[in-house]
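Reading is simple: each integer encodes one residue's backbone shape. An example follows:

___
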Amino acid sequence: MTKLSDRIMRRRGRVRGVLRHAAGDRKRLSVYRSSKHIYAQVIDDDRGVTLASASSIEKATRESIKTGASIDAAKTVGKLIAERAKEKGVTDVVFDRGAYLYHGRVKALAEAAREGGLNF
């Protein structure tokens, strides 16, 4: 029997491998979801740098939401990451959900980023 952490790492690697194959020259929008907050980054894998980031732990975001572990927080972070990515000139990305299902907070963040102007 394998450990849960091993299965999560294997799933994350499988998702990321498919994304790298399909991405072309697009940047990667990566999502991390903890029990209390949600984080998003736009990453340039060719250079290995983070171009833009947003999270529910930032002071401005914390003041506008009740808790960082809600769908409302994910929507706020999605809009914020789209705005910051567009400032850096990034509009086309691939969505890296990591080992998480495309459901709930992850889905809310993705839809908010699309509404904010990111294409994926």
